[in-house]
Specification:
homodimer, 338 residues, alpha/beta, Quinone Oxidoreductase, Chain A, domain 1, seven-stranded mixed beta sheet, 24% helix, GroES-like_sf (chains A, B), MDR_fam (chains A, B), oxidoreductase activity, acting on the CH-CH group of donors, NAD or NADP as acceptor (chains A, B)
Chain lengths: 338, 338
C-alpha cells in the first residue's frame, strides 16, 4: 500500500465554439492508501472521441454534460497496480470510463477486466475491439439495416469509426463501399488499406459534385460521421428505400450558431428514405456478438487499423483538438505511460 | 352506344413557384363509340391532393411527372354509364386514376369496382376509406411504429390526412394527440370533432414556442404533413427513441429556391430518433387490413370527417390552389356532376 500521484485534466470552462487553452486545466491529485474494495490502475491509453465535444456543453443530452472543475471522463485501458479486491487483481488489464488521467483509484466495480489475447494490443479495446468498432457494427447492421450488395457511403471514412465501417461493410457483403476524407493521404489509405472501392477528398471541391461522380448507381446506405454538406450530398444520391445512419456531425460540433439542415430532406419522402440517429448507449447488448465476430476477423488478419498516438496525459486536450480538426488517421489515443 | 363530350383539365405549363392561370388548360374531348372491353364513366368526385404539386415539376421522382399537354391524372370515383365489359357493368361505382375530367372512357382494366355500402357516400373512397385514410394508417403504424400511450403530434392536422391521423391514433391507443392548423376555426374543430387533446394555430406565433407549450412531456410520434418550421419545432420536442413519419412538406412545395432544412437535425443522433419518409406506393398491401378496420370504425360511428367540395370540373385548378393554401377542412374534392 502506498500513496500515488495522478495527473488529471479537468474541464475548467465550457467552450463556446472551438475549445481553447482556457477550456482545460491540468491538476495533480494524490491518492491515499486503498480503501477496501478499491483498486489502483496505471492507465496505458486514454481515448479522445468526437462525442466529448457535445458533453462539454451544458445541455440536456443522452448523457449528462461533463461536470465543471472535475476530471474529464471517458474510455481508458490500464493495468491494475494495487488491489484491495479479489475480483480485479494486480496485473489485470482493465477497461474503464475514468478518463483523462494517468492513474486512477476507485472501487473495483468501475473496472471491466479484459481478456489478454496474444497479438492484440490493449489499445484496440478503445478502438476496433471496443466502442469504436461496436459503433460501426451497430450503425451498419441495426441502424442502417445493411443488405448484401448495398452501395455504402461513409463520411469521415479515415477516422476511427470510418475505417471500421468500411471494412465491416465489406465483410458483411456490401457491394460498393465509398468514403470521404480530408486529405489526399487519407483518401489513398481508404482504397489501399481499408477496402474502399472509391474515395474522395472533401476539401477538393463540393461534396455534392464529388459524390455524384463516384456513385453512378446511387447509394443504399449512408453512414454519416460528419453531417452538414455530406448529409446534403448523400440525400441527393440515395436510392429508393435507402437508409442513413446518423452517427456523428463533427462538422457542426464547434458551431456557435444554429446551422441550417440539408435543403433536400424532402427527398426522404419521395424516395422512402429512413434517417436514424443513434448513440451506443442503447445498443450495448450487441457487444458480445460483435466482439465474437471482430475477434474472429482480427485473428484471420482481415482487419486493418491505424492509431494516431500522442504521448503524455497532459497532451490530451491537444490530442482532442487535433482529432476534431482531422489530424488523425484511425483511432486517436493518448498514451499515458504512467 | 353513343358519342360523349368530356371536359378535361390539362397541364399546359410547368409552374415555377405557385401554379397560375397559365399552368392549366381546359379542353373538350369527344369520345366515340366504345371499343370492345371499354367502359364509359361519369365521374362523381375528382380528388385534388398536395402530392400533385411535385408531379407538376419535371424531376425524377417516385412517380413520373405529369405529362405536358395531357389531362391531369389522379384519383376519382364515378359511375359506369356505358360498358363493353362484363367485369365492369353499367351502374357500377368505380375508382380510377384518370383524374381531372367529368367523363372518362378507357379499358375496363383501369377501373376498380367499389362496394356500395349503405350510408357511405362515394366521395369517402377518395378520402378516409381511400388513399387519404390509408396514408394516415400506414404512416402511424408501419412508418412511425405507434405504441399505446404515445404522445402524437400532427402538423396540418385539419387537412384530409391530418383529420384521419388524429382519429386513427386515438383509436389505436395513443396517449395524447396534438395538432396544428392554420386558422382558429380549424383549431376548434380539431379538439371538438377530431379527438385532438390540444391544438394550436401556427399563424399565431412561432411553432417552436407554441408546440413547447402544449407538449410538456415531449412527443413520441410526429406525423408531418407540413415540413419547414413544423419539423424543426418537433425535432426540439421529440423524446428519446421518437419516430417521425415524413408524409408531406406542403410548406415547401411551391418554393422556387432550395429551402434550408431543420437546424436541429443533430437531435436525431443524441435522442436516437428515426425519421422515415414514405409515399403510399410501396404500402398498398396494407389496404385490405385498413379497409376492414376503417369500415368497422365508420359503421360504429367512431369516425368524423369533413369535405370541402367545389362544383364543376373546370374549378379543379382553383380547388387545387385553395387546398395548397389551406382553404379546405378535411378532404378537398371537385364534384363533377357530369
Amino acid at each position: 500500500m502506498s500513496q500515488a500521484t495522478s495527473t488529471q485534466i479537468q474541464l475548467a470552462a465550457r467552450p463556446t465554439g472551438w475549445p481553447t487553452a482556457e477550456t482545460f486545466r491540468t491538476v495533480e491529485v494524490t491518492y491515499g492508501d486503498l480503501e477496501p474494495g478499491q483498486v489502483r490502475v496505471a492507465n496505458e491509453y486514454v481515448s479522445v472521441d468526437p462525442y466529448m465535444r457535445g458533453r462539454m456543453n451544458d445541455v440536456k443530452s443522452y448523457v449528462p454534460p461533463f461536470a465543471l472543475d472535475e476530471t474529464m471522463t471517458g474510455g481508458a485501458v490500464g493495468r491494475v497496480v494495487e488491489s484491495a479486491s479479489d475480483d480485479v487483481p494486480v496485473g489485470a488489464l482493465v477497461l474503464h470510463q475514468y478518463g483523462w488521467r494517468d492513474v486512477v483509484q476507485e472501487d473495483a466495480g468501475g473496472f471491466q477486466v479484459l481478456p489478454e489475447i496474444p497479438g492484440v494490443p490493449s489499445s484496440l479495446y478503445l478502438g476496433i475491439l471496443g466502442m469504436t468498432g461496436l459503433t460501426a457494427y451497430v450503425g451498419l447492421t441495426t441502424i442502417a439495416d445493411l443488405h448484401e450488395g448495398d452501395t455504402v457511403f461513409v463520411s469521415g471514412a479515415a477516422g476511427a469509426v470510418g475505417t471500421a465501417v468500411g471494412q465491416i461493410a465489406r465483410l458483411l457483403g456490401a457491394g460498393r463501399v465509398i468514403g470521404s476524407a480530408g486529405s489526399a493521404e487519407k483518401v489513398e489509405l481508404l482504397t489501399s488499406r481499408y477496402g474502399y472501392d472509391a474515395a474522395f477528398n472533401y476539401k477538393d471541391g463540393p461534396v455534392r459534385e464529388q459524390l455524384r461522380e463516384v456513385t453512378p448507381d446511387g447509394v443504399d446506405v449512408f453512414f454519416d460521421n460528419v453531417g452538414g454538406d455530406h448529409l446534403e450530398a448523400a440525400l441527393d444520391r440515395m436510392n429508393t428505400g435507402g437508409r442513413i445512419a446518423l452517427c456523428g456531425a463533427i462538422s457542426q460540433y464547434n458551431d456557435t450558431e444554429r446551422t441550417p439542415g440539408p435543403d433536400n430532406l424532402a427527398n426522404a419522402i419521395t424516395r422512402g428514405l429512413t434517417l436514424r440517429g443513434f448513440t451506443l448507449g442503447g445498443y450495448l447488448d450487441h457487444a458480445p456478438r460483435f466482439r465474437e465476430l471482430m475477434t474472429g476477423w482480427f485473428s484471420e488478419e482481415k482487419i486493418a487499423y491505424d492509431e494516431t498516438v500522442v504521448d503524455g496525459i497532459e497532451k490530451a486536450p491537444q490530442a482532442f483538438l487535433d482529432m476534431m480538426s482531422g489530424g488523425n488517421v484511425g483511432k486517436m489515443l493518448v498514451r499515458t505511460g504512467a
